[in-house]
């Protein structure tokens, strides 16, 4: 018996601070098309989509409506799921970062990485754009404003956990060099 090769694809995990828009639809339709194509090729496809239900903007929008952040995103998620049903999107799993199993899994992985010294606590500071949920350096700002949306930014500082990439620098470099070599070899074959 021939076992199907696995194929995994995911949309971005969307921030449900508002209703879905054309950008959400575009990336979801693109992933759906690829997932359907791979299924037709006989792959065992896992197509994931979902929502990242944390963030300052969600907290602020929930407060404006007088509800908890979870209550606020529950309504937005219904809209996302309803739209994907209407568009006949063939996802296999919808993940919510507020789901119990997700929280437990992330905590387990986080603890293991923390215990091994790969995660450490630090401080992140810079110019912050709440609507874009992005930090910017002074040199990235345009006329002192967010380079993406043009709105005002505020000086912000937050305690954060960081991943110690330096522990994996050699592996990352080898992997990216190997991929670049493979890409170059493919390009050479295509140009013959």
Short description:
Helix content is 45%, strand content 21%.
Kindly report the oligomeric state of this protein.
single chain
The helical percent reads: 40-55%
The spatial strand order of the largest sheet comes to 1-2-3
Principal-axes shape call: globular
Poorly predicted runs of 5 or more residues: none
Indicate the mean pLDDT.
89
Could you spell the SSE succession in H and E letters? EHEHHEHEEEH
Through-space gap between termini: 39 Å
Structural class: alpha/beta
Note the total helix count: 5
Alpha carbon gyration radius: 21 Å
Strand content: 15-25%
Largest sheet: 3 strands, parallel
Number of strands: 6
Report on the structure:
With 192 residues, the protein is of the alpha/beta class. The protein is built from five helices and six strands, in the order βαβααβαβββα. It has helices at residues 22-40, 56-65, 69-86, 100-115, 169-191; strands at residues 6-10, 44-51, 93-96, 119-129, 134-136, 154-163. The strands form two sheets. Strands 1-2-3 form a three-stranded parallel beta sheet, with helices on one face. It has a three-stranded antiparallel beta sheet with strand order 5-4-6. Helix 2 crosses helix 3 (69-86).
Features:
3-stranded antiparallel β-sheet; 5 helices; 192 residues; alpha/beta
């Amino acid at each position: 018996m021939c076992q199907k090769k696995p194929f995994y694809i995911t949309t971005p995990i969307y921030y449900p601070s508002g209703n879905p828009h054309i950008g959400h639809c575009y990336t979801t339709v693109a992933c759906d098309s690829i997932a359907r194509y791979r299924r037709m090729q006989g792959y065992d496809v896992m197509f994931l989509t979902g929502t990242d239900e944390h963030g300052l903007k969600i907290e602020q929008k929930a407060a404006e409506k007088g509800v908890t952040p979870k209550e606020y995103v529950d309504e937005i998620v219904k809209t996302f799921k309803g739209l994907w049903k209407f568009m006949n999107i063939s996802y296999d799993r919808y993940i919510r970062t507020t789901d119990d199993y997700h929280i437990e899994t992330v905590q387990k992985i986080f603890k293991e990485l923390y215990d091994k010294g790969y995660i450490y606590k630090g401080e992140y500071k810079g110019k912050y754009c709440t609507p874009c949920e992005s930090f910017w350096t002074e040199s990235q700002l345009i006329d002192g404003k967010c380079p993406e949306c043009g709105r005002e930014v505020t000086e912000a500082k937050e305690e954060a956990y960081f991943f110690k990439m330096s522990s994996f620098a050699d592996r990352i470099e080898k992997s990216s060099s190997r991929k670049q070599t493979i890409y170059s070899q493919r390009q050479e074959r295509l140009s013959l």
